[in-house]
Amino acid sequence: MRKTVLAIVRGQGGHVAVRAGLVAGLLVGLLAGLLAGFAALPAAAQAPAPGGRLGTGLPVPRYVSLKTDRVNLREGPSKDHRTAWVFQRAGLPVEIVAEYETWRRIRDAEGTEGWVLHSLLSGRRTALVMPWAKGEVPPIPLLDEADERSAVVARLQPGVIANVKQCSGTWCRVAILMEGARDLDGFIRQDRLWGVYPNEKVE
């Protein structure tokens, strides 16, 4: 490999001047080093920031809900990918874990993941009442106030969908839609819900 001779000459007034060829060589070397360093970065570090081609700029992960009674869960972010699952429960809370253009990768309470069109999702916050409960579990009380000692409005079975109205980080005020009857409104401890994060505040 040919060696580069660095020549420094003295200009008028005793200032140090560098030859034009040397400056060009240094700039090329610097640029090459930067490019090599960027290429060595992991893929995640090189990925564009959310909000461009890959997303909306909204927080990821975040909770949303299904807008319709039929939502196809696909293996990849396009209609060319196979449908792996079909959700048939409007209002079901899901968690967005990734974004790509108009597609969102979601996860349900059981851990199932896949891609859906963003138009099939709603920003309306809902939550499942203790979906992790297995076997014989006593019904979960829906209370009149955010206090364990307050009156019981209703007792809920695990897996019931609640509309989230407000969360303080400890308690959530929710509404339960009742077919053919008056809707229920009350408070439930936040750690008994899947669809809100621990300590999250919802206004």
Tags for this model:
203 residues; mainly beta; SH3 type barrels; 3 domains; five-stranded antiparallel beta sheet; 2 helices; 16 strands; 12% helix; disordered N terminus
Write the topology of this structure.
Elements (H helix, E strand, L loop, with lengths): L7 E3 L5 E3 L1 H21 L2 H4 L15 E5 L4 E4 L8 E5 L5 E8 L2 E5 L5 E5 L3 E2 L3 E4 L10 E4 L8 E5 L4 E7 L3 E6 L7 E6 L3 E2 L9
Antiparallel strand pairs: 1-2, 3-6, 3-9, 4-5, 6-7, 7-8, 10-13, 10-16, 11-12, 13-14, 14-15
Low-confidence stretches: 1-28, 30-53
Query: Biggest sheet, strands in spatial order?
Result: 8-7-6-3-9
Mean pLDDT: 81
Helical content stands at 10-25%
Number of domains: 3
Label the structural class.
mainly beta
Any idea what the radius of gyration is? Answer: 28 Å
How many beta strands in the DSSP annotation?
16
CATH topology of the largest domain: SH3 type barrels
Order of helices and strands: EEHHEEEEEEEEEEEEEE
Shape: elongated
Q: What is the CATH homology-level superfamily of the largest domain? A: SH3 Domains
Strand fraction: 35-45%
How far apart, in Å, are the first and last alpha carbons?
67 Å
* Count of alpha/pi helices: 2
